[in-house]
Amino acid sequence: MKLTTTALLAIASLSTVNAATLTWTGATDNVWTGATNWNPNQAPASDDALIINSGTPSQGVNWNISGGGSVTINGGDVTWSGRFNTVGNGSAANLLITGGSLSVNYAGGSSHAFNVGNGGLGGQRILQQQGGTLNAINSNNEIFLKSDGIYEMSGGVLNAGSIINGSGSNGRFNIIGDASAINLLTGYTQSSTGTLDLDINGISTINAGGLTSLAGGLDISFLATPSLGQTFDIIQYGSISGTFDTFDTLVDSPLGADTVSLGIDYGVNGNTVQVSVLSVVPEPTSSVLLLAGLFGGVFRRSRR
Question: Distance between CA 19 and CA 45 in Å, rounded?
Fold first, then answer.
């Protein structure tokens, strides 16, 4: 059974009972670490639950969300010139964006600007975007998913250099529905330990300039029953190498388990990875009931 991100966040909240909940006010200036910029007045810690509803908080050094900590951005414009990490270190760490914007402008060294899951295993590290805008578009500004790091996107806009999904340990990019805009300037990379997880009710296509390099898994389920012959563009790319290592061609839909059969084409129009619906079958119990009804009708007629 796949736990939803909402469920994982609920589980994660159990580990934050001893941390502070701080709401940004910006009463003094825009310095993230300034104690008087938060309510209550205290400097934020990596394991606190931090909430931004408005304002322009700014941070010039690296920031780790760890030890059950969280950052929730409902509004305002948050800017970062260091790295932003959901580290976990054996427990959950969560970043939720519902509105406003987060711009990570890290341009130093060879490290990734945005690490989801960096650190020791244990506890989910989750970047959840339901709205707003996440910008990570300068040099080295990749979003890196590993060590059980999950990026779940159900709305909003992503502008990034690239996503690197899985590298030596598990990563998952989960796209839900068609309310997201995903723009990657230099490409999308998925290793053998990465998974692209699509919950389709309409689809948000990954628009990847440059090279798309594929391995790992493709998991698909339908939130609404598709039509026979319907197609869905998963990735549009500049160039491509590799294919998904695993792709289950029988997937779930509101009709039941394994009720939709899919095919995949990696070169539609020379620049698109596309899945197509080959068949849609009724839930097995529905078929049994239908057959029982037909036989019942025949039996009733034979007795007249």
Answer: 9
